[in-house]
Amino acid sequence: MNEENPLWASESFWKKVAIWVTAGSFLILVVLTFDSLSQTEVGGKRVQAYSVINKKIDYVYQANLHKFMPVIGETELLFGKEFTEEEAEKLVTLGKKTTQAKNCMNCHTLLGNGAYYAPDLTKAWLDKGWLSKELREDLMVKFLLDPENNARTFGSNRKMPNLHITPDEAKGVVAFLKWMSSIDTNGFPYNFKTIYATEE
Ligand code: HEC
Question: What is the pLDDT of residues 41-50, one digit of tens each?
Answer without folding.
Answer: 999 889 999 9
